[in-house]
Automatic annotation (TrEMBL), chain A:
<keyword id="KW-0813">Transport</keyword>
<keyword id="KW-0472">Membrane</keyword>
<feature type="transmembrane region" description="Helical">
    <location>
        <begin position="266"/>
        <end position="288"/>
    </location>
</feature>
<comment type="similarity">
    <text>Belongs to the binding-protein-dependent transport system permease family.</text>
</comment>
<feature type="transmembrane region" description="Helical">
    <location>
        <begin position="210"/>
        <end position="231"/>
    </location>
</feature>
<keyword id="KW-1133">Transmembrane helix</keyword>
<dbReference type="Pfam" id="PF00528">
    <property type="entry name" value="BPD_transp_1"/>
</dbReference>
<feature type="transmembrane region" description="Helical">
    <location>
        <begin position="172"/>
        <end position="189"/>
    </location>
</feature>
<feature type="transmembrane region" description="Helical">
    <location>
        <begin position="132"/>
        <end position="152"/>
    </location>
</feature>
From TrEMBL, chain B:
<dbReference type="InterPro" id="IPR035906">
    <property type="entry name" value="MetI-like_sf"/>
</dbReference>
<feature type="transmembrane region" description="Helical">
    <location>
        <begin position="102"/>
        <end position="125"/>
    </location>
</feature>
<dbReference type="Pfam" id="PF00528">
    <property type="entry name" value="BPD_transp_1"/>
</dbReference>
<dbReference type="InterPro" id="IPR050809">
    <property type="entry name" value="UgpAE/MalFG_permease"/>
</dbReference>
<protein>
    <submittedName>
        <fullName>Sugar ABC transporter permease</fullName>
    </submittedName>
</protein>
<feature type="transmembrane region" description="Helical">
    <location>
        <begin position="239"/>
        <end position="260"/>
    </location>
</feature>
<keyword id="KW-0812">Transmembrane</keyword>
<keyword id="KW-0813">Transport</keyword>
<feature type="region of interest" description="Disordered">
    <location>
        <begin position="1"/>
        <end position="27"/>
    </location>
</feature>
């Protein structure tokens, strides 16, 4: 067990390619004002809407349009209570749905990508190049263009307007398979697979107990990619779902905004809902930041 | 290394299974193993990607014919339409207008986004920039916000009653600034949302690519008297060209598919038609007009355009990708 963990730890710097790159801290050069200012300007631009939603969600409906944009108020808790009360907590149901679509969906999708990527990287078999080429073409097929025919096909088996209709089409990720192949090739030494085989280990055992742990950090990246892709995919649930109790948060909030056009008091609900929905995401990003820096590189640099 | 395996399988293989015999048995079965592992991926690919593509193709060459008065269940029949749907799409002024809008949108968005992403990546990689980790995290953060939510946030920031920009305009004494969502400005407004969401991701891709370059190259250039700016422009930019090509490809594909942003903004403005972008056009045909045949043909046209753009790039990219495996 410990041996495996060590191997994996040793792998991280190798993938990132950063070791030895940065000189020791004591040779630091003075900070340039100009370039720092430009970078901070960029940061300010990116934080502006987040700061705004944080402040706007503390305002009540009349303050939203009357007080200065960045003047905070005290109604955040009331807004959350109102949002929770909206149609018996429909909002929180959207949150749970989103967690199901993006979270569970991305976990299953990552596992499927890992299986395929490992098979493509660690086995020699006839037809391998063709399979990979076909799957790779899928990377370029714009997912949203598939949404309408997927709807028509699922409608024929009566699966539209169900959880399955949003979950199933997003389990396949050609880009995930592509990345998994790169990670498996780089992180799982063929000799280890061979020697495990000589010892009599079954192939799936080799994949689960040797392949998966070694691909670990890369799989987190694939998970994050897929998570963001599902969470970002507006068109598929927008087309598939009619019942608003099945909506993910994006489709739900978009619908609320639509009602706001005739009922401006909806706007505070929309704004509070937007704030609450990005909090967990931002937290997830900050916690898993390392994986973006380290492993996105492995895929991106080699591609 | 082999310790890993030994720990697991308990040292020696069972005596009944001779290693060589076992391997021989497995090599017959072994041919199936990779296929079994690929099976879930291949099945899902076939059902949710390949089948929809072929189904769309089939639909795009058909049309619905209404017999008689169009009453009763069997009065509508499908028949072969040849290229009729394609001709209709490609000559529809509404579709061409949506393509034109998206081209303008892409011309604004892609160069600005990649230019800023490259600038920030180079700044993060430069020796003398301060506040690097704060800058990196802040600029990457919008990637965590889905397009619908970011459109919603910016949508409010564009509304004169709520917007801080109008407050600034007022302080400057400009009273007749048009709405940021008025017809002339709405394309910029949407491009800004795309920029906000995309610049950080592209920055990270370029930055990680920069970090993979061994620093001795820069040292050598410094000794030869190159300035930091020269190093950035003459050495770093050419070295990360593959990453730049890749980000350009993905950005262009995303541009063609813009849907969530204009759809979300529609309740806030009158200047976005239901056919503002090509995908909104497809959506309207399929669901508002119930004409899936036209929608299918238009989808194929968009997909082909995407492929045409991608193909060139993929050729460049693929050659660099899989040199290292067995």
């Amino acid at each position: 067990m410990t041996v495996t963990t060590e191997t994996r730890a040793a792998l991280v710097p190798e993938l990132s390619g950063t070791t030895g790159r940065r000189a020791p801290k004591d040779t630091r050069v003075p900070v340039a004002v100009g370039s720092t200012a430009v970078l901070l300007l960029g940061a300010l631009y990116c934080l502006l809407p987040v700061a705004w939603v944080l402040i706007a969600s503390t305002k009540d409906a009349s303050e939203l349009f009357s007080t200065f944009t960045f003047a905070p108020s005290t109604h955040l808790w009331e807004n959350i209570v109102d949002l929770t009360a909206y149609r018996d907590g429909l909002y929180w149901r959207w949150m749970a749905n989103t967690a199901l679509y993006a979270g569970v969906g991305a976990i299953i999708s990552t596992y499927i990508s890992a299986l395929s990527g490992f098979a493509l990287a660690k086995y020699v078999f006839p037809g391998k190049a063709t399979v990979f080429r076909i799957l790779l073409m899928g990377v370029l097929v714009p997912g949203v263009i598939l949404a309408i025919p997927q709807y028509l096909l699922l409608a024929q088996v009566g699966l539209t307007n169900t959880y399955w209709s949003v979950l199933l089409p997003q389990l396949i990720s050609p880009y995930g398979i592509y990345l998994a192949r790169i990670y498996a090739a780089a992180a799982v030494p063929t000799e280890i697979v061979e020697s495990a085989r000589t010892e009599g280990a079954r192939e799936l055992f080799i994949f689960h107990r040797i392949g998966l742990p070694m691909m670990g950090p890369g799989l987190v990246t694939i998970f994050l990619f897929q998570f963001v892709a599902v969470w970002n995919n507006f068109m598929l649930p927008y087309i598939m779902l009619g019942d608003d109790r099945l909506f993910p948060i994006t489709v739900g909030l978009s619908g609320l905004l639509n009602q706001g056009a005739s009922l401006p008091s909806m706007y505070t609900l929309v704004i509070t809902g937007a704030l609450l929905s990005i909090v967990p995401l931002i937290a997830l990003f900050l916690v898993l930041q390392r994986y973006w820096r380290v492993d996105l590189a492995a895929g991106a640099v080699k591609a | 290394m082999t310790a890993t395996v030994d720990d697991r399988s308990g040292g020696t293989p069972p005596p009944t299974r001779h290693p060589r015999a076992a391997r021989a048995r497995r090599s017959r079965k072994g041919a199936l193993t990779p296929w079994m592992m690929l099976a879930p991926g291949i099945v899902l690919f076939a059902v949710f990607m390949a089948a929809p593509i072929f189904y769309t193709l089939a639909l795009s060459f058909q049309k619905e014919q209404v017999k008689g008065l169009g009453l009763g269940g069997d009065s509508r029949t499908r028949e072969f339409a040849g290229l009729e749907n394609y001709v209709a799409t490609l000559t529809d002024p509404e579709f061409l207008a949506s393509v034109g809008r998206v081209l303008v949108y892409g011309l604004i968005l892609v160069p600005t986004m990649l230019g800023l992403a490259l600038l920030f990546a180079l700044l993060l990689d430069a020796r003398r920039t301060g506040a690097k980790s704060f800058g990196r995290v802040s600029i990457f953060l919008p990637y965590a916000v889905p397009a619908v939510i970011s459109s919603l946030l910016w949508g409010f920031l564009y509304l004169p009653a709520v917007s801080p920009f109008y407050w600034i305009f007022e302080q400057l004494g400009w009273d007749d600034v048009p709405s940021l969502l008025s017809p002339g400005l709405v394309t910029f407004a949407i491009a800004n949302i795309g920029l906000w969401g995309g610049v950080g991701f592209n920055m990270i891709v370029m930055y990680t690519s920069l970090k993979a370059v061994p620093s001795d190259i820069y040292e050598a250039a410094r000794i030869d008297g190159a300035s930091e700016r020269q190093i950035a422009l003459r050495i770093k930019v050419p070295i990360i060209m593959p990453a730049l090509i890749m980000t350009a490809l993905f950005s262009m594909i995303a541009t063609l598919q813009v849907f969530a942003e204009p759809t979300t903004l529609r309740p806030l403005t009158n200047s976005l038609s239901t056919t503002w972008s090509p995908l909104m056009f497809v959506y309207r045909d399929a669901f508002t007009r119930d004409d899936v045949y036209s929608a299918a043909a238009t989808s194929i046209v968009i997909a082909l355009a995407t492929f045409a753009i991608s193909f060139f790039f993929l050729r460049v990219v693929q050659r660099r990708a899989f040199g290292q495996e067995d």
